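Practice record 12: protein with methionine sulfoxide.
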Amino acid sequence: MLSEKKLSQRYERLFKQLQELLKKTEETVSHMATVIAILHHKMPRFLWTGFYVLKNDLLIVGPYQGPLACQVLGEKKGVCWASVLEQKTIIVPDVHKFPGHIACDSRSNSEIVVPLINSKGSAWAILDIDSRDFNSFSQVDKEWLEKIVKLI
Ligand code: SME
C-alpha cells in the first residue's frame, strides 16, 4: 500500500491530468467516463469504480469499470443510498459490517462513496469505489475524490 504522501502525490497528478482532459468537451457523461477510466487504471486496489445517477427515486448505474454491477439500486438502503440521503462521503472499512450493504460483487471488502452535489445543494449522483482489501480508503482518498468529482 502507498504511503499517505505518495498517494496524495498520485492523486495530485491524476487531478491535473483530469483538469486538462475534461476541457475537451462539456458533456457530463464524457467527463464521468474519463474520471472513471483514469481512477480505475491508475489505482490498482480499485476493484470497481463507477457512478450511480439519481433518477425518479432510483440510483441507476452510470459509467463504470470493473466487474458487472447492480444496474439499479431501488431500495433506499446500502452505502450509495446512505451517501445520497446524508449528502456526505461515506468510508466503509468493512462492507460486511455495514447495515443494508448491497453486495454487487462478493470480492468487495471495503468501499467509499462520494456524493456529487448540484447548484441547489442536492445530491444528483454518487461516485462509488470498491476495493478487494479491507480498510482501503483513508481521508486522503476522501479529500481528493471530493475534489475530483467537482470537476464534472
Ligand atoms: N455496495 C453498494 C452497491 C453498489 S456496488 O458496490 C457497485 C451499496 O451498498 O450501496
